[in-house]
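User:
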Amino acid sequence: MAENEIRNIGLFGHAGSGKTTIADGLLFLAGANTRFGKVTEQTSVFDTEPEEQDKVCSLNLGLASFKHENVLVNLIDTPGYADFIGEAISGIEAIDCAVVVVDAVGGVEVGTERLLGEITEKKIPVAFFINKLAKENTDFQKTFSTIGEVHKKSVVAVTIPLGQAGKLNGVIDIIKGKAYDANGKEIAVPDDMKDVVQNYRDKFVEAAADLDEGLMNKYIEGEKVELEECIDPVKKGITAGNVALCLAGDAMALIGIKSLLEVAVEFMPSPQMLPDIQLAGKSIKRENASPFLGYVFKTVVEPHLGEVCYTRILSGSAKSGDLVDNTTKSSEEKINQIFLIKGKEKTEIDELNTGMIVGLVKLKNTNTGDTLTKGLNASLPPIEFPTPSISMAIVPKEKGDEEKISTGLTRLHDEDPTFAFAFDPEIKQLIISGIGELHLDIILSRLKRKYGVSVDLVKPRIKYRETFTKKTSAQGKYKKQTGGHGQYGDCWLKVDPLERGTGFEFVDEIVGGSIPSRYIPSVEKGVKEGLEHGFLAGFPLTDIKVTVYDGSYHPVDSSDIAFKIAASMSLKANAEKGGVVLLEPIQEVEVYVPESFMGDVIGDLNSRRGKIMGMEGEGKIQKIKALVPMAEMYKYSTSLRSMTQGRGFFKMNFSHYEEVPRDVSQKIADEAKKTKE
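Assistant: Predicted structure:
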């Protein structure tokens, strides 16, 4: 298939904006599905997993390849929930043009802005679709203006609504100057809309003139610029990211969806229109004659096929049976079965060409973010996924399930790199980490459904620390007389508090051989073992310098074990007068919310012992920066979703350790003692 006969398009936007309904509508109107699949009726081509049908929303990236007017359209549908941002980021790696869906009722939401930022950072061409215009209280022009403010680049309308909110009758195609009803049938443009249409046509011409010097000269000199002259400059402007198109409609009523399909084929770039790929100092054209280069943007584990690697063919061609290099893993792979994918349907093909998006199966050592090549000894950069924001501990419901759990979690991580897990030996818990509570709920639901194991979620233990607040010195003397040789070790240690985050330092200041040098490692070992158990509540000691400066020994009874015990005794004696306090991990939190929810969110962070560090606007969204104790952030994403009607999200990373307030410290110490009893 020729490169110019392919369109790789992705749908992005806030949760509930109607992306999957648009995707199903496109398939139906292109004749790729015999019925209009609907999420609410569990007939969508894209939302096929039980968890998606249960939640009535997309949780995974969906892919459907279909033909329209001899053009192969590879359509990517992505989730809008912040918890599943990783799926959308994978989708961004697969496309040549992004369609950002905006709910006409909610306007440009937090999730939409976040995704638009990711898309524009990758310099991917953009179009907008204002959806749900059949609903009450919608205003196309108002939403259109907001998009222009947020996108900060030229946005021109190519379709506008015919009729007002609640009485949407169809759309008007600005370029064709024609109107289409809900069935896609051509109807007359009403007389009272002709001036409005002309105004939008003039804006289209102005945008084209800004992109083309020849048109600009004609425009300035007052010559008439025909709309047909503007098509190519606008196409080039879209590809270059200098202009974005905007369309109107209502997916549930299939209004404006046919126009979206036609605009995708007519205006959105084919792979060959995009800039050459820069790799290892080479400039690679996106054509079949170039060396083969494929990129795995998503991995799916299917019951009968195993791992299916969703792969975008950036250049070149290959056939089933060919050997290729996985340059990311420095290994060789054989291209086995190749599938074009349409939801759960798969059509086997035997050749890969530039621009295709396919599923490759039975690859031995290939995962998301890997590069497959022939004759190119280089790799494309890995996908930058967001780091997990929350962690929970899990406990098997049945004894002996540990191995099955580990296998299942490993495969789930392969499918979703934003999910991670590890056993933490310090707190002796198996910790799973993800973007939010909903994300982890879905992971555990899949663990049970796919791998047959159930677990209980429990609160992860907090890694508290202890430290000294005063300089101290104390002796530790261990003397034991038994039959035969006795035990003798004597050391003086001084302890100095250090700055937060310094850790532990051991210094040997013995002079004159009061403790022989051969016993100093045992002193250090005794100190380190004492640090691990703490003294206030049993948490490790940190941020202190321990110096051994004096002591004594017995030429017969002294031993390594005796000096180890003496050092431990000395450290304990120091701790009793060192003003030991409890430290807690503090998280750096960034919360993104619409301005109307700022008061509630700040009040909630304050109630969690948070310190607000600053606020800044990003478009219509406010970013609140705060430092909050980790212990207070348990299940925060659920609270945030509730406070902001699902319109807020947050990022969280470890910042530093800080002293726990005295009243809170006592409660933690009491709980720690109970746990050990």
